[in-house]
Write the structure tokens for this entry.
Amino acid sequence: MSLNLNTLSRILLWVTLLAGLQSCSTSPKIVKIPAPLVALSSPYSLKLLWQLRFDALKYSDSEGLYFAESKTHLYFANPDGVLTSALKAGNVRWTDQVSWQRKFGESIVSGPTLAKQGLIIGTAKGHLLLVKPENGALIWEAQLSSEVLSRAVVNDTTTFVRTVDGKLYSVNLATGHINWVAEHSLPSLSLRGIAPVTLVNNVLYVGWEDGQVEALDVNTGEMIWQAQVLIPHGRTDLERLIDIQAKLIYENGRLYVLGYHGKLVSLNPENGNLFWAKDVSGFRNFVVDKTALYMVNENDILMAYDLYSGTMLWKQENYKYRRLVDLIFYGKNQLLLADGLGYFHWVDKVDGTEIARAKHVEQGMPGQTIVRIWSSGNEIYTQDIQGYISVYQVVISDWYQFNHPNGDIKLAKQPKSPKPKNDN
């Protein structure tokens, strides 16, 4: 069997898929050159507020890791088993910035998720943990069947997580007791990572690695309906590889699903019937507003589709093969994305035009691969492959501020650096 590398648009897919193949011959590697950045006079720049350094991580180990926040603190984890609580406000010294750290004896591969009962993390050895946000002390620990790779989703009393062996768990948040387990058979080959479940009106919607979508009763785990969204095509295992890696999104009475080597579809959440489908492949999380869906395909092309008809509204190809991370909203009218070459990009969500660009800079190491971004107001939180957690403040030019007085977000024009503290 020969490997068809035309299907691999990212380093993540290349490493993950080859790791899962046995005794396969290879064809010549096709190099996909990242699109060069077009000239742009950016009205935004970044002010580094604070930065913490941890151990470097593998790109594939970041798939289940996310930021969580309270009003005053930011929580994050790394694959070396360290969970950290840091103040949002910048401080000069590490001991002032970091409120606490807790090191566990195994790799953390998902979370944290902040619930009213505590912080939830999942480990590579199948442990689901709940810890206190105040100090990281362990509240309870539940042993699941295998690696807990999906981010936890919660309601008032329960958390829902998925493991790599095709199981979905419902776990009591107060006690760590397992309420029920739903199982699903998995294909022999899939991408690294698991999409978290989507919880709406006491129904759990799950996108499985074999291209099926299921609706489950939140109280019992019993199946309400099942739909085969993706169909394998091709001759080789790689060509026939399908997977649902992006989190399903429910919006205004419709369910949206994006599949790798598959389709972008809109389903009726009551019965799984199809509203519309488009032949487009992707695996990154997408976002929707009241009228449109915004996604990145497997070749890092940014697209927008009408929510109700599935009509493509616009396409932006300036970031092709630049290894984009999950797409997020920035304010009311912009999209924010980052690429694997160390750049942030702001895009107008109405027509897909580029608005601004800025470079991620580590101390002495500019342009490292970004694996996760998150935005709160005019601050951007970033995790990169070298182990840096960086927090930036977006600074807007006077010219742009004057010409956009009703802009998305009140951006600081002159951020103040924290005052040095006397160690004595």
